[in-house]
């Protein structure tokens, strides 16, 4: 059990507020934040008995309004206070979530993403993750796999921010996996090897984020953005396989203000309505969860049936685990220091105050097979003790002891088999990861194929797709065909004229031959082939709408050029 951690951060006055000669109304002391209503005279109470000041206590109150103040909290301090815990959680195998909530222009993007040279939590968490991976791999035999995705929720529609120009970027479906919970179908996931890889993806995704000018903030984003890191870690710990998976959601919400306060009209107003639908639902979810935990804390209160409306918005549905579920969650409420924003700031502070009451149930996400191995090992140890005890009281030849012995042997064999399977799976993953770094190297704005092995480059038949797949041709045979072929195909393609077993690429010591299988259409350099054909470097092979170019390192060194061209038959 762990409460959602809540931090409030106040930013400096902006130009607009300075021009309006706005007054500071936010004070912070340790973890307390106080807001002053200047309309109520000092020492007095308002018309309806309202207090001039209201004080809230959070886990952290970050004063970032004045860089010269001794209490000033920088981006680095925010990371040290909150971000390092996220990195730690990832290595321990817990899910984590950080979300920033607040009015437009209050500093959500600055806190989450930051500016160039003044980076925020997302880049710092990613950097922290990789620097710890590098440290760990130096003294440990641990292996890691890190995957990122980046999506935007705009008008209740999910959009992939990392798959440009593809027909599938917009309006992705949210589905539910029986074990893993809600997920976005067809969302692209990108394997990353180092911080540089993440930086590139973040940049591309940020450019893709829908931005629209509104009356209140020119660069304001009207969408919710979720940057997700899936971090898998595997190692042997005292001969025992360990594998944990951690999912980290880093969320930059859209501005929380009412649409009418921004002077927005028409389409923008509709957007505001939908954005508010997600935020209103988020508020309802937070309230329901806060009620639940307060009831749970008071055994005298009769338990109410509280319904948590996760499904009422895409945002809350996707963040279901992060809110009241299996995650260590942090909310950062960002506020303006100015009296002109009193209403919005007070509402943000109240929202944050409510979120403090949410209780989550984070658990270490262990691989199911590894868990089984551990359980079987515990069972083996138990059986061994029982047998040893049985030995002492001369039970050794009894039927019970024999069946125990049998069970012990079965368990030992199963553990051995599972451990082997698990080790092979990880070795394979690591080899693929190593191969990827070998094969693709960034050079300026281009990508250089730098592989020793002969390979094919597959270009999707979808004209709008920019996806290019690299297939290494292993020594021996590589079978190409459909998913429904009677034998498993190494390269599975889709297409009307594609035979279930279409062709075979035979690689003997770096010399490759294309063998068309009966009835299949394969062309080399535009000429259909009927029999096994030796492929020269740089040759075009057309297998239905799939175009492959055969090339290898030698070819590149000779200074020839591979020209990629999409041919559709
Ligand atoms: N703590 C801070 N220190 C310095 N500048 C800040 C701080 N917080 C925000 N700013 C600046 O204020 C401006 C608005 O901040 P930001 O874009 O992060 O707001 P936002 O809440 O994300 O708005 P939106 O809802 O439009 O996404 C930016 O120019 C940002 O650099």
Automatic annotation (TrEMBL):
Keyword Ubl conjugation: no
Stored InterPro entries: FHA_dom, Kinesin_motor_CS, Kinesin_motor_dom, Kinesin_motor_dom_sf, P-loop_NTPase, SMAD_FHA_dom_sf
Keywords: ATP-binding, Coiled coil, Microtubule, Motor protein, Nucleotide-binding
Coiled-coil region list: 373-421
Keyword Coiled coil applies: yes
Annotated positions binding ATP: 102-109
Chain ranges of the Kinesin motor domain: 3-358
Family (UniProt): Belongs to the TRAFAC class myosin-kinesin ATPase superfamily. Kinesin family.
Protein name: Kinesin-like protein
Gene coding for it: LOC103604242
């Amino acid at each position: 059990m762990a409460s959602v951690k809540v931090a409030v951060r106040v930013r400096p006055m902006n130009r607009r507020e300075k021009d309006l000669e706005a007054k500071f109304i936010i004070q912070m002391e340790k973890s307390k934040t106080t807001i002053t209503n200047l309309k109520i005279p000092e020492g007095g109470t308002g018309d309806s008995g309202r207090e001039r000041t209201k004080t809230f206590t959070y886990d952290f109150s970050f004063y970032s309004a004045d860089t010269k103040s001794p209490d000033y909290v920088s981006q680095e301090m925010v990371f040290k206070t909150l971000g390092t815990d996220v990195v730690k959680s990832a290595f321990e195998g817990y899910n984590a979530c950080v979300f920033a909530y607040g009015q437009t222009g209050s500093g959500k993007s600055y806190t989450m993403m930051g500016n160039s040279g003044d980076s925020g939590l997302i880049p710092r968490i990613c950097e922290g993750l990789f620097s710890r991976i590098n440290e760990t791999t130096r003294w440990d035999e641990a292996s890691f796999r890190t995957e990122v995705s980046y999506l935007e929720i705009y008008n209740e529609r999910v959009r992939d921010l990392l798959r440009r120009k593809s027909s599938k970027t917009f309006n992705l479906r949210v589905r539910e996996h029986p074990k893993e919970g809600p997920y976005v179908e067809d969302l692209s996931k990108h394997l990353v090897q180092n911080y540089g890889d993440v930086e590139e993806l973040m940049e591309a995704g940020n450019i893709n984020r829908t931005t629209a000018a509104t009356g209140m903030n020119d660069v304001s984003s009207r969408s919710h953005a979720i940057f997700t890191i899936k971090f898998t870690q595997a190692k042997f710990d005292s001969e025992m396989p360990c594998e944990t998976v951690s999912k980290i959601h880093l969320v930059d919400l859209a501005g929380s203000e009412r649409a009418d306060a921004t002077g927005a009209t028409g389409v923008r107003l509709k957007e505001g309505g939908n954005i508010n639908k997600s935020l209103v639902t988020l508020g309802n979810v937070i309230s329901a969860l806060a009620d639940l935990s307060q009831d749970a804390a008071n055994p005298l209160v009769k338990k109410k049936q509280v319904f948590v409306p996760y499904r009422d918005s895409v945002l809350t549905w996707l963040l279901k685990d992060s809110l009241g579920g299996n995650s260590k969650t942090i909310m950062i409420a960002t506020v303006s220091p100015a009296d002109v924003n009193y209403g919005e700031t007070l509402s943000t502070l109240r929202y944050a105050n409510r979120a403090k009451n949410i209780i989550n149930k984070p658990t270490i996400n262990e691989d199911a097979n590894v868990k089984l191995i551990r359980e079987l090992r515990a069972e083996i140890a138990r059986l061994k003790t029982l047998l040893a005890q049985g030995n002492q009281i001369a039970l050794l030849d009894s039927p019970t002891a024999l069946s125990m012995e049998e069970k012990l042997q079965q368990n030992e064999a199963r553990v051995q088999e599972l451990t082997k399977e698990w080790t092979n799976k990880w070795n394979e993953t690591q080899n693929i990861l190593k191969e990827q770094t070998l094969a693709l190297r960034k050079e300026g704005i281009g990508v250089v194929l730098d592989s020793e092995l002969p390979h094919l480059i597959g270009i999707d038949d979808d004209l709008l797709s920019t996806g290019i797949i690299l297939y290494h041709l292993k020594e021996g045979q590589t079978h190409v065909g459909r998913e429904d072929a009677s034998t498993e195909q190494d390269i599975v393609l889709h297409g009307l004229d594609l035979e279930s077993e279409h062709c075979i690429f035979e690689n003997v010591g770096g010399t490759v031959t294309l063998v068309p299988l009966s009835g299949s259409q394969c062309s080399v350099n535009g000429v259909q082939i009927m029999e096994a054909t030796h492929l020269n470097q740089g040759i075009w092979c057309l297998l239905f709408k799939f175009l492959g170019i055969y090339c290898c390192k030698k070819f590149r060194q000779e200074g020839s050029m591979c020209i990629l061209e999409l041919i559709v038959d």
